Amino acid sequence: MNAKRLVPTVLVALATFAVQDAEACTIFVLADARRVIFCNNEDWSNPKSRIWFVPAGEGYLGCAYVGFDNGWAQGGLNTKGLAFDWVAGSKEEWTPGTDLKVARGNPSARMLETCNTVDEAVTFFRRHRELSFAYARILVADSSGKSVIIGARDGKLQIEESCQCRGFGYGQRTLDKMLAITPESNVTNGADILRACLQDGKHGTKYSNIFDLTSGDIHLFQPAKQPGGVKVNLAAELKKGEHYYDIPHISQQVTQPPMPLLNNMKRLFMDQFEPIPDAERGVAKRIRDILQDLLDGGARAEDYTAEFWNEIKQDGVQAITEFKLLGKIGAMTLVDRKAEGGNHSHRYRVEFKDVMAMEVQLRFVLDQKNRVVLVEMEGVQWKLPSP
Fold first, then answer.
1. CATH classification at residue 375
2. Same structural domain for residues 112 and 179?
3. 239, 264, 289 - which closes a domain
4. Same-domain status, 243 and 124
5. CA-to-CA distance for 130 and 17, rounded, in angstroms?
6. Is the pLDDT of residue 203 over 80?
């Protein structure tokens, strides 16, 4: 396992769910009689962007997802030509009704793998809890040219359907001007608009994607390398089985053997684990104390291997500060324990409370001296109250 996938990565991943300071990302759809193009600029501080592919299975469609190394899909495309992405930065009153179903894991991913059309997506969000509407809006479009913007206002879902070119986000003013001329629906025009709406700075655009909802072609761009990009096809990639690419290195990786999905990209990976008795209470307490020290800014070098400690010193300070937005550590439930060579691995379901009710599956690897070798995030889901 890559040593880079450490606590700093986990903390940045979790901070993705915190409310952002300003509206981020720009998303829009171009539609005409021939093609429907779905376009997105992904704005965030994490440079470790990825695209991953999950083939169809019983009860769900084949999908491509885009996002970061936390495995939480920010956007995606399925084999029926349905696509989505989010714009964060709004703050709305939103408390989902307790009569709604709980969508396990990422509700957007559950939607994409089970819905064929915009109408079905709207029905999905009317029936399932999605806490993200408190701080974000989603754009969903299908191959017919129909799209919907879903958000919350005054405690209620707002559903805005259309069959016209439209979009919203960080580049709103530029987007409005360029869409006003009704551009032809093609990749060139989509890329031109994305380029004009790029955001700079720490939370600037980390990647741009264009989904052709008619053909299933996917175009990926990096801000520093636009207007060039890499093109892949959804159907062709799904034939390779489950795999992923690092977007910054995709031009090289597409010519190499596919990289198998990491655990946090797999569909409902957390479902593979059930609580087990935790007989090593001393180890459990040590892991909790180490995690709490990280949150409190009091991490100690002697608790970690030298390599891990160097990673924390390099990457962890800002991430730890953002992590505090999630609230306090609640229950920690052991779901797996096994030996790994001279080390031992412990998987815990960790609950967070107060600001955001979440549960995260973390794998802690300790050496024979109980020093931390690795912490890996394997799944995240909202911790929602039972109806």
1. 3.10.450
2. yes
3. 264
4. yes
5. 12
6. yes
Residue 279 domain boundaries: 271-382
Distance in angstroms (rounded) separating the CA atoms of residues 360 and 269: 12
Nearest C-alpha neighbor of 113 from the set 1, 224, 266: 266
Decide: 11 and 322 in contact? Cβ < 8 Å.
Answer: yes
pLDDT single digits (tens) 2-38: 333 334 444 444 444 444 445 689 999 999 989 999 9
In this predicted structure, the answer to whether residue 337 has a pLDDT above a threshold of 90 is yes
Q: What is the spatial distance between Cα 325 and Cα 202, in angstroms, rounded to a whole number?
A: 19
Distance, CA of 330 to CA of 351 (rounded, Å): 5
Q: Two tokens at 217?
A: 């072609």
Q: Which two tokens stand for residue 344?
A: 């031992």
Model pLDDT, residue 227? 63
Q: Are the C-beta atoms of residues 207 and 45 closer than 8 Å to each other?
A: no
The residues pairing with 347 across neighbouring beta strands, listed in sequence order, are 336, 363
81 Rama class: left (phi>0) / alpha (psi -120 to 50) / beta: left
Kindly state the tokens that stand for 78. Answer: 């399925």
The answer to whether position 4 is within a domain reads no
What is residue 7's predicted lDDT score, i.e. its pLDDT?
A: 41
Is the Cα torsion angle 54, 40, 19, 90 positive or negative in sign? negative
> Given strand 63-68, what is the order of strands in its sheet?
156-162, 147-153, 136-141, 83-88, 75-78, 63-68, 49-54, 243-246
Cβ(338)–Cβ(345) below 8 Å: yes
